[in-house]
Amino acid sequence: MEKLVSLCKRRGFIFQSSEIYGGINGFWDYGPLGVELKRNIRDAWWKAMVRDREDVVGLDASIIMHPRVWEASGHLTGFTDPMVDCKACKKRYRADQLCEELGITIETGSAEEHGFKLPPGTQCPACGSTDLTEPRDFNLMFKTFIGPVEDASSVAYLRPETAQAIFAQFNNVLSVSRQKVPFGIAQIGKAFRNEINPRNYTFRSREFEQMELEFFIKPGTDAEWHEYWVAERLRWYETIGLPSSSLHRDIHPKEKLAHYASACTDVAYEFPFGIQELEGIAARGNFDLSRHQEFSGKSMEYFDQETNEKYVPHVVEPSAGVDRIALALLCNAYAEEWVPTKDTGGEVLAADITASRPPEGYEMRTVMRFAPCIAPVKTAVFPLLKNKPELVAKAREVFEIAKACGPAFYDEGGAIGRRYRRQDEIGTPYGVTIDFDTLKDETVTLRDRDTMKQERVKIAELPALLK
Ligand code: ATP
Q: Ligand 1 center to residue 175 CA distance, Å?
């Protein structure tokens, strides 16, 4: 993780928020490459979940909603984590994480019930003191005030998930979209949680982005649709380059489910810091729509014209985090290799981290093996020499062609080998070099990031090859 965090900062994927003021815990900024990476994740999700389907439509709702939304959803009373403070060193813990860290098994109740007690003598992992407070519930919603007066009547919340807006707009979307159950509403947007203990880089942040689908179904079809979405989502992760061997299905046992849910499966990834959730896929019954029906007094019933039945639809909810997926892709892409010093397409060796240096004729390279659809930059274009105007002019011409096929980068600075390495390190899949032969026969070399093989191709063929 240390190497990755350093690369992310050095190359402009991720910066600490407000770094010049010492940073702010749980908040991160995405630099020039990070923003492209995140955009590619969102685009891939939106394409698979909305544009390529006929049964899902989109929504982009406001972050601050009527506070009654959070009463109805149960977040106001129930969206809490148990917090423990060490009275000696003032360190604060999420009680369940503290227990996990100390290897303490909590027997009473499910995670939702909280209210458990720490065994006597539990020690603070930081200072060893046993003077810890009992776990107490802490609501994770960020509070703000609407308008100039800060009183109880103007309290509002930054949304802790994007899903509730979908339920609140269910009737409007249904009436304009000509959809019939089963159908879905998808949304991508920011969510905010005042996490007790943000950690593992961007994995647990206080401001993050979610990609959520509410797929509305006929009651009784929950199990089959849940299975469908778990399979569908696992497939999607492979399309963005996460191998199935690195993905896990974490099936929640029945006794750990919320009372209204019939199934929940997490998609988890093998991060360097452990196997952790990327996405939760839950069959939530009709809990949310029923609660909004109750609290708003507006009917959320759907009339099924085929069967002449009226019902409040059930829902299956695949809910993923953009930042966690970005982190998984970064972890998955990072590789260190020994490559021949002369970049002519010789054999590449996996770096032996126990050796002090590479063998004779080899050097170390860091390469980000992003799938091309996810790579922030798709093609880099290099004139062999920068002080030959005819090469530069031709390279600029080729750059325009490459740019029309996706994000491209033009680089004329330094030795060609160094320029290749710089692109390897940010995961650019293709490099195009313009040399003196180009001026004679309209061909360029096309270099593959992973094999480092170079082939001579006609400029006219580049658009088709790059696409
Ligand atoms: P966790 O158990 O890790 O706190 P959760 O089960 O509360 O997560 P959900 O409420 O199911 O998470 O949220 C759906 C998705 O939103 C998660 O799978 C994750 O990708 C993302 N997410 C949730 N909380 C955070 C966070 N603090 N930072 C980054 N992403 C998050």
A: 31
Q: CATH homologous superfamily for 368-466?
A: Anticodon-binding domain (3.40.50.800)
Alpha-carbon span 410 to 398, nearest angstrom: 10
Ligand 1 within 6 A of CB of 81: no
CATH 3.30.930.10 correct for 2-68+141-330: yes
More confident call, 20 vs 135: 20
- Average of per-residue pLDDT across 425-452: 96
Ligand 1, atom 2: nearest CA belongs to which residue? 277
What are the structure tokens assigned to 122, written together? 């539990």
Distance 161 CA to ligand 1 centre (A): 9
DSSP characters over 199-262: BTTTTB-SEEEEEEEEEEE-TT-HHHHHHHHHHHHHHHHHHTT--GGGEEEEEPPGGGS-TT-S
Structure confidence by residue, pLDDT tens digits, 294-351: 999 999 999 999 999 999 999 999 999 999 999 999 999 999 999 888 766 567 887 7
pLDDT in tens, 357-403: 888 888 899 999 999 999 999 999 999 999 999 999 999 999 999 99
Angle at 189 between CA 75 and CA 218, to 5 degrees: 65
pTM above 0.90, yes or no: yes
Domain residue limits, the chain: 2-68+141-330, 80-139, 368-466
Report helix, strand or coil for 459. helix
CB 181 within 8 A of CB 313: yes
CA of 463 to the centre of ligand 1 (A): 40
Pick the CATH number of 80-139 from 2.20.28, 3.10.450, 2.160.20, 3.90.25: 2.20.28
Residue having the nearest C-alpha atom to atom 18 of ligand 1: 279
Helix (H) or strand (E) holding 401: helix 389-403
Residues 257-304: tens digit of each pLDDT: 988 999 999 999 999 999 999 999 999 999 999 999 999 999 999 999
Q: Is the CB of 324 under 6 A from ligand 1?
A: yes
What is the residue with the minimal CA distance to atom 4 of ligand 1?
A: 204
**Average pLDDT value for residue range 428-445:** 97
